[in-house]
Amino acid sequence: MAERVNRTIRRMAPLAVLLYLFMHALAFAEPETKVPTPAGSESCGARLLKDQDYFPALLEEIDQARQEIALTVFFFKTNGFRDNRPDRILARLREAVRRGVRVDAVIERGKEKENVSEVNADTARKLRAAGIRVCMDAPERTMHTKMIVIDRRTLFIGSHNLTQSALKYNHEVSIRIESPPLAEEALRYMKSLCR
């Protein structure tokens, strides 16, 4: 019987050593640290707007604006069709002005006789007719920014131009950020583009 017990102990010895090492390692291990998870839309006040997500998010914010909307855009292509998304944005900006919201726009001027320049000039006339203050930047330097600040708290920034292609068909990505400090910084930058 003693021999059988000794054989069992010898067979279990490696397992006992492994168990001892494991318990020893646990005793001296550093306390568990949680790996930070990527920031979600709720946790950091930001939301990634891929492709067509941008358009409804922007319309919603324009409709909720109470004091001020400021935008700077490289290409704003309206064409007069009601289902054209840039025209729908123009209509919502017009409605915001009627509610008493101040709307300012900085738009790329471009070089003379370029498509962007001509299209933007046409849209600028429509914006002015809607009561929106418009500044066309200096033609010597391309203004390629796409930012919209609403009520000095919400900032849209990214790749979306205000064209039917960008708002409906292209692969684009922008971010909606809820941050008064960033919104103020963006406004200061916009103002520096048109003195």
Question: Could you characterize what this model shows?
Answer:
This protein has 195 residues and is of the alpha/beta class. It has a single domain, classed as Endonuclease, Chain A (2-Layer Sandwich), CATH 3.30.870. The protein is 47% helix and 18% strand. A hairpin with a 3-residue loop joins strand 5 and strand 6. Helix 3 packs parallel to helix 4. The longest helix has 27 residues.
The radius of gyration computed from the alpha-carbon positions, rounded to a whole number of angstroms, is 29 Å
Largest sheet: 7 strands, mixed
Under CATH, the topology can be stated as Endonuclease, Chain A
Structural class: alpha/beta
- Percent strand equals 15-25%
Helix content: 40-55%
When the domains are counted, the total is 1
> Residue ranges: pLDDT <50 for 5 or more in a row?
15-43
Q: What spatial form do the alpha-carbon principal axes imply?
A: globular
Mean pLDDT: 81
**CATH architecture verdict:** 2-Layer Sandwich
Topology:
Layout: H1 2-28, H2 41-44, E1 46-50, H3 54-64, E2 68-73, H4 85-98, E3 102-107, H5 115-129, E4 133-136, E5 147-150, E6 154-158, H6 164-169, E7 173-178, H7 180-193
Parallel strand pairs: 2-3, 3-4
Antiparallel strand pairs: 1-7, 2-5, 5-6, 6-7
Keywords summarizing the entry:
195 residues; alpha/beta; Endonuclease, Chain A; seven-stranded mixed β-sheet
Briefly summarize what is shown.
The protein is an alpha/beta fold and 195 residues long. Helices cover 47% and strands 18% of the residues.
